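User: Second chain of the day. Same drill as before.
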Amino acid sequence: MITTLYTTYAEEPRVREATARTNDSENKKKMVPDGHSSSSASSRTPRNRSSTSNPEDVHVGKYRLIKTIGKGNFAKVKLAKHVPTGKEVAIKIIDKTQLNPSSLQKLFREVRIMKFLDHPNIVKLYEVIETDKTLYLVMEYASGGEVFDYLVAHGRMKEKEARAKFRQIVSAVQYCHQKHVIHRDLKAENLLLDGDMNIKIADFGFSNEFTPGNKLDTFCGSPPYAAPELFQGKKYDGPEVDVWSLGVILYTLVSGSLPFDGQNLKELRERVLRGKYRIPFYMSTDCENLLKRFLVLNPTKRSRLEQIMSDKWMNLGYDNQDLKPYCEPIPDFKDERRIEIMLQMGFSRDEIQEALANNRYDEVMATYLLLDEKRQKLTLNGSSDPLMENTSAPRPSTSIPTGVPAPVRPSRASARRERGERELPRRYSEGRTPHKTSGITRAATEAGGSSSGQTKPRSDWDKTGASRGVAPDEERVPSMNDTSQGDKPRSLRFTWSMKTTSSMDPQEMMEEIKKVLESNDCEYEQRDNFLLLCCHGNPSEANHVQWEMEVCKLPRLSLNGVRFKRIAGTSINFKNIASTVANELKL
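Assistant: Same format as last time:
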């Protein structure tokens, strides 16, 4: 199984969404989920702010908070809705009083960098709200979840699919480099998917600006994705460390495993410094050749992304559409249709123009930007005049759920072994020695948390845990706020792994799920007839994870299925407990 070590270096503390913790649940068998914190939070008086005595109906400026989707020591992330436009956003709420001056400096550097990045495959910042004690970052909400979770659920991508995603990733990172920004924490967990399955790069907490010729010496990132010069403590120019990480990402997309892995940090470091990795037999020669341009031990010999863009594999199937550096368009700040709507909302033309001209990232600018996003989304849905639609009306989701673990489907290799067939020989790079790697394919969770790599002690590189800044699958997978109708489970259109489907009565399935949860020391709370909110591990420790389990009707298969959805905690901890529970279910 893929081993992910989340890193915070002593040289560069940062605010990161850590493993979620649930209040007052240590001595309870039934768990009480995290509620909404009351946040009074705008740097200016919001217009028409609704006042309510309902504690669940909390607003920050023009945003109605829906639920917590990530939580750490000093920050939490909430799913929210921009009331005037009906657009869903993610709001990162940071307690500034808990941060030292160095952390505050890096936090504001992250905000500054996000403000001048404008690329379709980078999470967009809409608004910054600051009070004396709290900072609110209103960001684009990526409903498709993490690429990591997608790989857990579906296994490795076919090269055609990986190519489409990787072109977007390379385009976004090259754009950052041409703006003299390096990300320094590129990994599958920081690559998000929107509702249309487009890449959105997130989490610029380790990012920094660089000047060609001036070396950087802060060593940060995630060890499995870190360049060898970082392990050696050498100074670096900047872009080349992102290039190495992109090579690891490409390998992960195509193979479903990490090129460099180890039982501990020392072993991982040795493998990275050797630069040896296994080439799976199914990987094309063109893809292998491209990897050799990324995963080069000598940083001066790694290809630049401008060169990568013209690579054969990158453009295969894209006739006359070779990947080119992204040309940032001139911002459209004179859209009269949007301005007219904002005038009807009570904004004045002067304040609209002033906010946009000065990039204030305030309520005015956020409304203008979100109206544009709303128009684009509605246009995709076939609206003839999108800006004149009822913007507060909810949109039905037509996406197929993808953020569920499929922990019990055997791999092709294991199926062959069961049938007594000989496994195909593997092909390796010249001069490279095969070694054991751990994948994040469908078969990766067969061991149910017992395989090597799942029970490793956390190293000094992994002190804070990790939840992503944007939670997975809020639109693509029904949330716990959705309810079933009466005594029947909700209907979902999804092809489930066979061990998570059953013709058993839904109520009997619920009883079986509860029995397995209790046998694995999991706490749970029944939120609806067929919906459980579950947690595992000590809330005060980094192994704590929180997730949903729901019994749903699968009309196409005339079966019932069990939906898993991670709420908080690291991907690896969620995968461990989810696979254990799924394997023990007798459905």
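The radius of gyration is 24 Å.

User: Great, on to the next one.
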